[in-house]
Records
---
Amino acid sequence: MRFAQYRSMQAQVMQAVFKKVDKNQLGSVISMMLTNLFQIMIEARANLTQVGYVAGEEFPEFSDAKESLSKVFENTFMFGDLLLRRPTPIHVEYDQHTDWKDILTWAYYICSKSGVFLPEEQQFLDLIAKESGILPKDANFQNPYLDDSEKPRKRFEDPKPAEKKKPKKIKRGPRIIHSEF
């Protein structure tokens, strides 16, 4: 399966999960997802370090190392989907774990130096890095992936009072009195 197809399927699954999860349970679901995601990335990092893989080199020859590199790619983009679509609840959990930022910085570097991603995928990686604090945000940075529930809402303004309608005047001409008939 191609990476783009896998990512599309991954995004659909995440959207379905967010629609089904009660808002009261959202925090615990996110915590569980991120804990598992970063645990997989920690294990993948250990495997790649053990075989001596350096970012930007050719893909590793060993199947375990290839699998680990694949997990880094998949989980980095999955975290990006979560972070860019639901930044507020993700930051609540992510910001509590300083070690996760180190892992994500390493994963971003691995992904960026791999040279396997299309320009739009590289742009997505850069958005992840900006939203997570790896790269500084531009003054005009805007997250294009925000769900409607995350977009800043306009401040409520009182509606203008309805204008009172003036009754229409019916023009009346001279009246005929019954005696004139």
Note: The longest helix spans residues 26-51.
---
Amino acid sequence: MAETKAVEVCVKAATGAPNVLGDCKFCHRVILTLEVKKVPYKLHIINFVDKPQWFLEVSPEGKVPLIKFDDKWIAESDGPYVNGEKISAVDLSLAPKPYHIEIPLEHFKGWKIPENLIHLHNYLKLVFSLETFEKTKAEKKYVIARWKPRIEA
């Protein structure tokens, strides 16, 4: 049986700890996926204070995560949805949750998602404005009605 070649992945180093995995949600998502799928991988932790020359040659923009497939380095796709440019099952699972939490919390408790969470607001605005989301969501008054007995009990 042929040996599976490990996928190479470049990820961000921790601030102040250049040899430790850092705080990057995009890198986390990539290596978490590889772990869950049991894909063998080799991790390259990139110190953003002193990026290695080889890394800048394969990633001129200096962004991570970066994945090597078939001897070609590929940048992880940025996009408006959780998995990049196209809506995925993750978005379809995630989108209803903040909708059904935000409405009763604002109505009964006066709580709103903090304005400084710009990326979250942009994401919610995007998914909440989808024609399919609009077509399938419950009206706010019915979301409030569902929660009223639980909140006022």
Note: The two ends are 63 Å apart (CA to CA).
---
Amino acid sequence: MEVIFFMFFCAMAIVVLIWFFLVTKLFDLIEQNHPEKFQDMGCPHLFKNNTLSNNLLFMRYLFKKEWTTLNDRELTSLSAAMRRILVTTLIVFLPAMVILPILLMPPL
């Protein structure tokens, strides 16, 4: 059972690293090609100026598909992929974070 938990942890770490890379790429793309949208989102960056308000604006951007109004194929492709990754991660990893520790608990 510990092997499953370790494999789960490694998979989650890989997803987080990919997410960091994609977020950085997305923010750079928006900043370069759509500075007004970048301003509307609070000029977010992965670590610098990473506030709760900016994160909520970014989640709104992803979940309300705000990229569709920008008419940018690369941005649309990246944003849609990130939305799918986020939804999949929430569906798969959040329940597993609750279930796996329960399964790994020693019997009473």
Note: The longest helix spans residues 2-33.
---
Amino acid sequence: MISNLRQWAIIGFAFFCLLVGLATIWLPIPTGVPLLALGAFLLIANSRVGRNAVRRLRKHVDWLDHALVWLEERAGRPFDRVLKTTRPLMTRHRRKREVEAGLSRSTAGTDPALTSTTSPSTPAGEEKRTQESTAKQPCG
């Protein structure tokens, strides 16, 4: 019961930090950003719903994901561990790279039976014979 009460108190303090940080972000005194960071860190560390919300945001907002990856690399060990729990299963920029790599692999034509083997100097008749010979070779 006490640990549950403690967790609720921490989550309440995290929301308080987020609200005060949003209210003071436009002031000339730099209190808004540190309060937002503290509130987000406490919410991620102590709430499954908070972790999932940040994970969803990272999945759909590419610049936020890049910024948090940059922060993960430079943060200390406890902060790094907490931020890594919010990584999406496959981040958007990795997915884009894999899609681009997959498209370049599929257009490269790695399967000789499916691609034509003609070069500018190969006559059309030799292309057919090459495809037929690769199709007749036993698998082994």
Note: The CA atoms of residues 45 and 82 lie 6 Å apart.
